[in-house]
Structures are given as C-alpha cells and as structure tokens.
C-alpha cells in the first residue's frame, strides 16, 4: 500500500506556513497538518475568507494549533510585512500553495503580470524573506505547488506580444519548478540543512478552474469547468496528498516533483509518486537567469545561499 495521510508523523512542536489556506488544496493541507499537531499558519489574502477557514478548521480539529495571518502575494509590501512577523520565530516548513489559474490579463500592485507575479514572484520573495528562519531550523523544507500544465509554458523570461492566459499560467508553473531547481542547487552547494521540493495535485477539484472563466465573464467556460470537475477531478482530499507527502515524509529528495500516481505509472489520480516534468525545468542556466531576474524584480536576495556556476546550458 502506498503513502497516505495516515503516515504523516507526529508534528507537535513544528511550525508550518501554508499560503492560500482558506480553500481547496491549501485548506486540506493546513487541516491535516494541524490534525497531526503542527502549529499551522493560514496565510490568506482575504481576512473574511481566512477567518471562515480558520473557524471551519477548528470545528473539524478542535485541538488544532492554528492561526490566520494576512498575506497578499500580489503585493510585495504585504509579503514583507508577513515575513517580518516571523523575525524571531522558528519555521519548519513553508508550503507555497496559493495561486491563480488562467485569469484575464491584469497586473499586481507592483506592476507584474498577475499570474507570474502571484504564482512565482510572490512566493520567491516570501521564501527569501523567510530564509533565515528556515535555515535556523534543522530539517526545514520549502514545498512549492506547481502543475502538470507547466508543459504549456516552456519559456519564462521573454515577454509575449499577446497575452494568452493558459500559456501565462503554464509559464508561472514552469517558474515554480525552475525556482525549486535553483533553490535545491544552492542549498546543496552551501551544505544547508534545508530541503526544496515541488509537487502537483493532478486534476483536483478546486475553485481555481472556475475563477478564470468567471473573471473573463465566460458562462461557457464556467460550465465546462463544472463538468470537468464532476467527471474527471479528484476531490481536494486526494489532491492535497502529494503536498502533505513532500512536507512530511522522510524519503523526499531534493528537487523532486511529486504528484498522483497509480502503480508507479504517471496518472492524474492515486497516491503520491514521482511526477514527470519537462526537461527545461532542470536547465541550470535557465533557472539561474530566472533567479537573477526575480531578485531584480522583487528586490529580495538570498544572501545566505550564494549562486552556483551553472553546470548545463539551455
């Protein structure tokens, strides 16, 4: 039998941050970690929805040690304020879960295309600003949620003449994997006791599928999303399993990409297993260039993890 949430170890004494924990995969992730005794921080953009999620979690797990802290990944000042709240606190696991999927073109508070800004740059900045706390905690982990749809976005650095929302989503998910790759390289070179890993949920039923069509005013898109969720998607209880595995299992490897699998074959369902990833998500030079650009855009630098000479060309 494969790994299940019943295999999550006792997490008492550990602090875990889950971004986007007010619904879907993030909520299930936060709830199950709290059920195993972790002190869980629900990092949410909306105070009302975050408070409702915390109330629901405490109703389901009355003994939970959980709290809500506001975090808007589309506003770097909010990211900095959130990180400042951890100045003197240990942090065992950071789960970069929040994200947007295939939304119409818009920009973040800081002027970045929204999907790239929230899905990648916000998490890049958050991880860097929390790096000291992570490095000070033995065995700490950074788990970043990507997607199989990274396959639709092979490039991340160039600007497109015409915005295409699904391609922009894929590029942001490619960025998640390149970020994990470069972070793992730097950790290995420094000898730090920190693990960077990525996951994908397969096709899981979440509000993300309907949000893009809703914002675009597409009734047809919303209907397609509902039908797809009903016919093909797993529920969030299943979709969150790869994240929970990567955050807690003892055999997770650096720069791994975990997703649902059935009998060792890549599928959209099943327990956690090795997920297939596009070869460009392991290109050292591309990851290095993305990292440098991300530092320029966010103003966040990982001084404790200096750059490593790229071993491969694009």
TrEMBL record:
Record has Oxidoreductase as a keyword: yes
Superkingdom of this protein's organism: Bacteria
Keyword RNA-binding: no
A single GO molecular function term of this UniProt record: oxidoreductase activity
Keywords: Oxidoreductase
A Pfam family of this chain: adh_short
NCBIfam families: PRK06197.1
Family designation: Belongs to the short-chain dehydrogenases/reductases (SDR) family.
Protein name per its UniProtKB record: Oxidoreductase, short chain dehydrogenase/reductase family protein
Lineage of the species this protein comes from: Bacteria, Bacillati, Actinomycetota, Actinomycetes, Kitasatosporales
């Amino acid at each position: 039998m494969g790994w299940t949430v019943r295999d999550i170890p006792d997490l008492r004494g550990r602090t875990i941050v889950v971004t986007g924990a007010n619904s879907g995969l993030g909520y299930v992730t936060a709830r199950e970690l709290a059920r195993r005794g972790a002190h869980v921080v629900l990092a949410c953009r909306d105070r009302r929805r975050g408070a409702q999620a915390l109330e629901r979690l405490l109703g389901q797990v009355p003994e939970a040690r959980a709290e809500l802290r506001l975090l808007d990944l589309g506003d770097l000042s909010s990211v900095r304020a959130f990180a400042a709240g951890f100045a003197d606190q240990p942090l065992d696991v950071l789960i970069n879960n929040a994200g947007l999927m295939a939304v119409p073109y818009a920009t973040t508070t800081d002027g970045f295309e929204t999907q790239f800004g929230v899905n990648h740059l916000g998490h890049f900045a958050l991880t860097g600003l929390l790096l000291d706390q992570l490095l000070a905690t033995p065995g700490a982990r950074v788990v970043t949620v990507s997607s199989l749809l990274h396959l639709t976005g092979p490039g991340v650095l160039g600007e497109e003449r015409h915005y295409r929302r699904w391609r922009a989503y894929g590029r942001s998910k490619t960025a998640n994997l390149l970020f994990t790759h470069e972070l793992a390289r730097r950790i290995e070179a420094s000898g730090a006791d920190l693990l960077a890993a990525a996951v994908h949920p397969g096709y899981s039923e979440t509000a993300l599928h309907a949000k893009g069509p809703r914002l675009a005013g597409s009734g047809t898109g919303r209907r397609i999303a509902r039908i797809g969720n009903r016919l093909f998607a797993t529920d969030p209880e299943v979709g969150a399993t790869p994240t929970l595995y990567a955050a807690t299992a003892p055999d997770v490897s650096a720069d791994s990409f975990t997703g649902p699998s059935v009998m060792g074959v890549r599928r959209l369902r099943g327990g956690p297993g090795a997920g297939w990833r596009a070869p460009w998500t392991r290109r050292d030079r591309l990851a290095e260039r993305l990292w440098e650009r991300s530092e320029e855009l966010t103003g966040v630098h990982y001084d404790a993890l200096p750059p490593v000479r790229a071993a491969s060309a694009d």
